[in-house]
């Protein structure tokens, strides 16, 4: 059974949210987090281990009208794990934030383990660090389409030169 078939079942199981912060473009590392635990330890999905940390993520809901959502993510800062990286790498502004949702039965180590069974991943960018206290770190996220200084299409189409990058050489 696939995850899309599971969604319509009366006994769904537990959702597991998996978060990844990719700050390699800023000279840092990739961090994997989840608010869930699997049998009292960290969660493994697709061979990647996600550290269990208290995380609260809100505002991912989208609508067909109005502005794009701007989610907020609050991560525990009690163990001060992220804080030195934030201070050394521009507070992760511009880092990629990914959210993957799956069911607990598809996690590694379970009988139905299958890393392909997930909802479509959501990709965001860290727009700003809203707060950093001894207890928590809060980020504001922005959609890839809503980033500053990003235009679609990325390349300007000129009347005389066409758009050769897309295979439209209007003038030869």
Low-pLDDT ranges: none
Q: For the report, how would you describe the main beta sheet?
A: 9 strands, mixed
Distance between the termini: 53 Å
Determine Rg (CA atoms, Å).
20 Å
**Shape, please?**
globular
Task: Indicate the percent of residues in helices.
Answer: under 10%
Count of structural domains? 1
Number of helices: 2
* N-to-C series of helices and strands: HEEEEEEHEEE
Q: How does the helix and strand content classify structurally?
A: mainly beta
Question: Which strand-content bin applies to the residues?
Answer: 25-35%
If you average the pLDDT, what whole number results?
A: 87
**Major beta sheet, strand line-up:** 3-4-2-1-7-8-9-6-5
Number of strands: 9
Would you write up a description of this structure?
- The protein is mainly beta and 172 residues long.
- The protein has one domain.
- It is 6% helix and 33% strand.
- The protein contains 2 helices and 9 strands, in the order H-E-E-E-E-E-E-H-E-E-E.
- A 9-stranded mixed sheet has the order 3-4-2-1-7-8-9-6-5, with no helix packed on it.
- The chain is globular and about 45 Å long.
